[in-house]
Specification:
Layout lengths: L1 E4 L10 H10 L4 E4 L10 H14 L2 E8 L14 H15 L3 E5 L11 H15 L1 H7 L2 E5 L7 H11 L4 E5 L1 H6 L4 H8 L3 E4 L3 E7 L2 E7 L8 H11 L5 E3 L6 E4 L18 H10 L11 H24 L2
Parallel strand pairs: 1-2, 1-10, 2-3, 3-4, 4-5, 5-6, 6-7
Antiparallel strand pairs: 8-9, 9-11
Helix pairs in contact: 1-2, 4-6, 6-8, 8-9, 9-11
Length: 319
């Protein structure tokens, strides 16, 4: 199944009903509303109407939210208690017919705090364990993402296993894997067996004097072999959808030739760093994209997504 993550077209500012119509128009199987923002209400009546609209359009809804880690720099105090916030995500998922409730730990900044990423992983495990019975009752699994360079694949795998694979799995993101210095194929080998959902995009890496730059791209326009990725994904995570989350147009520096760059990594870099470097050697510089206005930004994002749908359809059809 090929789906779209709503964040791919965030610039259009569409709310959930419009997103459902758009998803149907580009003929994807799933609309992944990965954050609560597009929902105009969390009342059951509203959510049931969304499900009915999606069902009529032949679209399956997947839903989620953001950080469940109160020690993360991304945690928002207005979300209240992490367990209650996650319980709310489970309720939204259940009402919308989503088999998963997506969430995250945080981002790469959490690696630099006292105690490193391990402290935040421990906090997440506590929260995830607290909702086990609720997940089992509602028939919803928690899909926690490798998000914005927060965790490498083995770290997320260990988090999931500690929390309980019966009700927790991975929302795998190959673009975020690259931000964590991982070759997406290695990341898939580690996380694939516990993957229940995804947010995918392609990546370009190129060499600089201080290390490298990374720019995310539309599927098929970067360095990831999505024919191989889709084939292995189907083998390791049968039934899990490939949802496209294109986030393109800007580059992030990775000055790994500087000693201080490695301080947030308590352990040696993932074994896949050699693959990451090999990708870099094959990469080429990309120019950033700066939209002159909101309309141009929305058009750019839709173009990135729609080209990705076509490319990923071709890749999955060969599986």
């Amino acid at each position: 199944m090929v789906g779209m993550d709503h964040f791919a077209v965030r610039g259009a500012g569409m709310k959930a009903p419009a997103l459902i119509d758009y998803a149907a128009s580009i003929k994807v199987d799933i609309l992944f509303i990965s954050e609560l923002g597009p929902l105009e209400s969390q009342d059951d009546d509203y959510l049931k109407k969304l499900k009915a609209q999606a069902d009529a359009a032949g679209i399956k809804l997947y839903t989620g939210g953001m950080s469940i880690c109160k020690t993360s720099n991304t945690w928002k105090a207005e979300q209240g208690n992490p367990e209650e916030y996650l319980a709310g995500l489970i309720r939204v998922a259940k009402t919308c017919g989503s088999p998963v409730a997506r969430c995250v730990l945080g981002n790469a900044k959490d690696r630099t705090t006292d105690g490193g990423i391990a402290k935040h992983i421990e906090e997440c495990v506590k929260v995830l364990k607290a909702v086990k019975s609720r997940c089992e009752t509602e028939g919803v699994k928690i899909a926690i993402e490798n998000h914005a360079g927060d965790m490498q694949s083995q770290e997320l795998r260990e988090l999931i296993e500690a929390a309980g694979k019966g009700h927790v799995g991975a929302n795998i993101d190959p673009g975020n894997a690259v931000w964590a210095l991982e070759d997406p194929m290695h990341n898939l080998e580690v996380l694939g067996p516990v993957t229940i959902c995804s947010s995918v995009r392609d990546s370009m890496i190129w060499e600089t004097d201080e290390g490298a730059m990374v720019q995310w791209t539309a599927v098929g326009e970067g360095l990831v072999d999505f024919n191989a990725y889709a084939k292995r994904y189907a083998e390791l995570a049968p039934g899990a959808p490939l949802n496209i989350e294109t986030i393109s147009g800007f580059a992030k520096p990775f000055p790994f030739l500087k000693d201080e760059f490695w301080k947030p990594y308590a352990q040696a870099p993932a074994a896949s760093f050699a693959g990451w470097l090999a990708m870099m050697k094959r990469g080429k510089k990309m120019e950033p994209f700066k939209a002159p206005n909101k309309e141009a930004e929305a058009a750019y994002q839709k173009g990135e997504l729609e080209r990705s749908v076509k490319a990923l359809r071709a890749a999955t059809s060969a599986v």
